[in-house]
Each structure stands twice: as structure tokens, then as C-alpha cells.
Amino acid sequence: MTGAASGIGLALSARFVRAGVDVVMADVEGDALHRRAAELTAQGAQVTAVTADLTDPDAVERLADTAFDLLGDIDVVCNNAGVLGPVGQPLWEVPLEKMRQVFEVNHWAHVLVARAFVPRLLERGRPAHLIHTASMSAFVVGAGSAAYAASKHADLAVARSLRADLRGTGVRVSVLCPGRVDTPMVQGLTAPRGAGGDTSVSAEDVAELVWDALGSDRFYLFSNSDAPLRLRDQFDDVWRHVPLPPASPEEDLWHAPKATTAARNH
Questions:
Q1: Is-above-0.90 flag for pTM?
Q2: What's the CA gap between 31 and 184, in Å, rounded?
């Protein structure tokens, strides 16, 4: 369970513990992670906290080593680490370094976790389920959300590719696409125009959705009740452009610019 110190990752860990499942929790926030793991351990399950920077390939490999050494066989991998990054700024104003940091966590860390865990899952030949946490922002993009939305689009593509790669094996893949969730990451945030949606759910609701999907072939997991409307609006916009005939060579698509004084003088 990555990104497990708070939010959806913590709620997922708690849901698994409540079912008597042993859990390895990972997060870069070590102090908070160990506090939460201790609280869950008190409920009677085996819970191990691993402080790890999931953007570091070596750290991810060590996490996989620890998880398989402790648990033997792993049934579920929740690839959940994520950050919000800069919001409310147009793309050209977002510092590139900030945008890269968002991609490191929301995309590359998920790639590294999949690369570390999936081959070992396949080697064991047992049924398993890989959950990728993306977002409704993998579909619905509002103003001022370029870094976050682009990283989630990338993670959706990774999940879809993994689904195709793993077809016919015992490893299932689902992509979790929550809308607004009441977590520390979004508390106090006013969503950029067109990015937020009209509903909010708890992290516990999201965890229950994931739990109910385990072992099934459900790929897209949407948590918020306004998801159908938001998706319809997006795909209506796509389909609106599909049937348009190509422009004829004679069609004047742009108004010819007027000659400037400088050009006329040449």
C-alpha cells in the first residue's frame, strides 16, 4: 500500500486490516506513517511500515523485497502515492521543476512500483490484483490543473497498458478514478474552473469501492455520483469533433494577415 500515511492510502490500509489482511504500508512521510501503522497494529493485524521515497528505483526494489519477504505471497498491490502540486496557474506559469515533481510521484513512482511488483506476482502464478490510483482528472481537465491532470492522464495510460499486457494471466488491473475526496491533500482547496465536480466522498467510501472490486474484472472504478455526467460531457465534446468532414483545400480557415508597414516597404 503506497501513499499510506494519510488519505485514500490510509483508508485502504484500514479496510484491509479490518478484514484481517496483513498489510505493508509505504510512504515518504515516515513519522506519520509509523503512527498510523501502530494504530492499525493495535487492531490485531500484521502491519509493517516502510518509509520509502517511491521516486527512487532502489527504494522501490527494497520495498518489494520487504513486502514479499514478510508476506510471502501478495494478493493486492495498491499503487496509490500521489501529490496535488500547483493548481490555479496556467501551464506557462507553472514552474517546470514543480511540474516534474508532480510527474515523479503521480506517474514515475507508479511505473516503478509496477515494474518491481508485477514480475514477482507473475512468477508466483497466483491470482493477484493491481490497483492504480489515477483520478477523474485523467478524463476531466479544468483550467489551472495542467501538472496534476497530465500526470493522471499518464497514469491512466500506464494502467490501460498493464491491463493489456496482463490479459490472460492471473493478475488483474483496475484504475481508481475518484473525484473530489475529503483528504488532507484537498482540504481548503478551491478547485480550478471546470476541474472539481459537484460531489465529495470520504476516503473510506473509496476504500470500500476498491474492496468490493477486488478479484473482479472491473477496470474503471469511479467513486463519485457525478462521474457519469462529467464523463458524458467529456466524451460528447470528443464525439462532436469526430464526424466533421475534413476541410477542403479551397476553404479559407484563417483570415490572411494584413501586410505590415514594414512588409509593404520592402
A1: no
A2: 16
